[in-house]
UniProtKB/TrEMBL annotation:
PROSITE patterns per UniProt: GH18_2
Pfam (any one): Glyco_hydro_18
Signal sequence residues: 1-22
Domain GH18 residues, every copy: 34-333
InterPro entries for the chain: Cts1-like (IPR045321), GH (IPR017853), Glyco_hydro18_cat (IPR001223), Glycosyl_Hydrlase18_Chitinase (IPR050542)
Keywords recorded for this protein, A-Z: Signal
SUPFAM superfamilies reported in the protein's UniProt record: (Trans)glycosidases (SSF51445)
Keyword Signal: yes
Protein name according to UniProt: GH18 domain-containing protein
Organism: Urochloa decumbens
Length: 333
């Protein structure tokens, strides 16, 4: 299990140029939470969900993705992972006080048509369908909420296939990357309504993972409901204005970050970063922290000033495992 402490200042001062070390005062006043969220399920070579939870690196694991919905079909894709052990793994992670969420949506680049690791409500129809999703009507939003409740959450209606058996995830994450923005606010309200079945606790949590450009047009209306307790803002990918590893740098990220934290003061805002864009070579050894010096000394101190800073979200477990990214970031988050 990786250490939760930041690397020693003496060690980093020896490794970093004076201008970087001069930023130490800012880093020292930052307010880390220790919360690290990871997306799991996009590559069979990342290992099992149980293995991810047993690393001790993560406080939340997000299963991705539930990627076909809205037209009477309900289909998820785990990119080659066998479903046979996922239910037991969910329970194992929860027994370690690790929150397990199911993410709905995804994009064409991250949603694969692997033969294994997918679940199906209507096999015949799904064989003919693309990996796609949308909510064409209010009725479809209600139907998707009903399927999520009975197939993945606390519902147990007879005849509804539960791909993870009797295991229930702790909530639903919205990762909506294409299609119309319509009716996702209604879906959020339907899902939040199921909390009436939990006594004395919130059993159905809502989170969202929007793109970093503010606002995210596909999720803006849903987020305005105020029902999302966490927002994992994705500061990675193709948006050069706010993608940390794609040209935006600290300034671009902080400019967008301040908009997100101001617009949603009641939600915990997570800094979403991609391990594959970190600059750490695959299989790197030695002091990996040196590859992340500007994250430690420059970006994190700035974003952690926000009162509703929640932690770091890492995309994704496969790249994280190859680079050792979270093993370093965990102590800074």
């Amino acid at each position: 299990m990786a250490s939760r402490r930041r690397p020693s200042l003496l060690l980093l001062s020896a490794l970093l140029p004076p201008v970087a070390f001069a930023l130490l005062a800012g880093a020292a006043t930052a307010k880390p939470t220790g919360q690290v969220t990871v997306f799991w399920g996009r590559n069979a070579n990342e290992g099992t969900l149980r293995e991810a939870c047993d690393t001790g690196l993560y406080t939340t694991a997000v299963i991705s993705f539930y990627s076909i919905f809205g037209h009477g079909r309900y289909w998820g894709d785990l990119s080659g992972h066998s479903l046979s052990t996922v239910g037991a793994d969910i329970k194992h992670c929860q027994s370690k006080n690790i929150l397990v969420l199911l993410s709905i949506g995804g994009n064409n680049a991250t949603t694969s048509r692997a033969r294994k690791g997918r679940w199906e409500e209507d096999l015949q129809n799904n064989r003919k369908s693309r990996s796609d999703y949308s909510l064409p009507s209010s009725a479809s939003a209600a139907a998707v909420a009903d399927n999520l409740w009975n197939a993945h959450l606390g519902g147990r209606r007879k005849g509804v296939y539960r791909p993870f058996g009797d295991a229930a995830v702790d909530g639903i994450d919205f990762y909506i990357d294409h299609g119309s923005p319509d009716h996702y606010d209604e879906l959020a309200r339907h899902l939040d309504g199921y909390n009436r079945f939990y006594r004395g606790r919130k059993g159905m949590r809502l989170t969202a993972s929007p793109r970093c450009g503010f606002p995210d047009a596909r999720l803006e209306k849903a987020l305005r409901t105020g029902l999302f307790e966490r927002i994992h803002v994705r500061f990675y990918g193709a948006d050069s204005k706010c993608s940390y590893g794609n040209g935006a740098g600290t300034w671009g990220v902080v400019e967008a970050w301040n908009k997100w934290t101001a617009a949603h003061p009641k939600a915990q805002i997570y800094l979403g970063l991609a391990a594959a864009e970190s600059g750490i070579p695959d299989g790197a050894t030695g002091t990996i922290a040196v590859y992340l010096k500007y994250l430690y000394y420059d970006l994190l101190p700035k974003v952690q000033k926000a009162k509703n800073y929640g932690g770091v979200m890492v995309w994704d477990r496969f790249a994280d495992k190859k680079t050792g990214y979270s093993g370093v970031v965990q102590g800074w988050a």
